[in-house]
Amino acid sequence: MKQELVFEAPRRAKPPRHFADLDGPARAAAVADLGLPAFRAKQLANQYYGRLVGEPRLMTDLPAALREQVGEALFPDLLSALREIGCDAGETRKTLWRAVDGTTFESVLMRYPERNTVCISSQAGCGMACPFCATGQGGLTRNLSTAEIVEQVRRAAATMRDEFDGRLSNIVFMGMGEPLANYNRVLAAVRQIIDAPPHGFGISARSVTVSTVGLAPAIRRLADERLGVTLALSLHAPDDELRDTLVPVNNRWAIAETLDAARYYADVTGRRVSVEYALIRDVNDQPWRADLLGKKLRAAFGPLVHVNLIPLNPTPGSQWDASPKPVEREFVRRVRAAGVSCTVRDTRGSEIAAACGQLAADGG
Question: What is the pTM of this model?
Fold first, then answer.
């Protein structure tokens, strides 16, 4: 029996309008509506994106008499941190956020010697129903607003600067939700992430990764935006029979169509596609599947593909487990033998349920 996929989020009250929901002209109009001169819009943008200040009361170049008015109109407090949990000697931190309507979702900040990455959510929950993923099993609550997405980035960047004297370098849309099912808001957030101050945070497009389970038309649409971000395709099986079960969206866009769309992305952008593959013991880790994966990817992409093998991070109640290390090593060897680049992803955050597939916000 095929699982029903939910692409549209249930209707809920909209989050309040925030400065980060607005593009340049809309910011100028909002400032004008407050009776303020046009230069205030750029001033606010410099504070928010350049100085990472999200509260007008801390914007010292804004007259004190205006701060409350601007705060109420353009900078509502969208998110509050309900809980923060750390592991990996403090190098990994998961934050549970609560939105103004009570919706909860998670993001994960990971510090490495050569980079600092935040894994952000694009939806509260997920409607893709992948059975090995805690988020997918929880169902979809709602799409996040552009500002709710952007605020995860701003706060992570401020944390890196203020607590660690560092700089946020990488953004991955691999938290809760299917980014391409919230296309317009994710696109607006990506633009703010990669645009230079005062219009955005100025993070390189090459350092931004947008993941998808394979919404083929949206992959092609993203390619045509020509933003140059990295596309990560969550494949998890090389054959339709198994992928129909592991990634139910495959019932709508089968592997051939999904790979064709991802190849279009590679052709248009010139960027190598990352293929994500959660390795599950006795489910998708057989040698013949490694061979088939390598063969299909080599035929579809040539050198413009890289396989990220992810040792399965078990979730509570799951009947599945990670593949044994010898099986994992053989899988890597066979994919590489087909002429496809393949590595095993570092399983950061598994002990605090912050690793890939484990995010399942619980506001309790």
Answer: 0.92
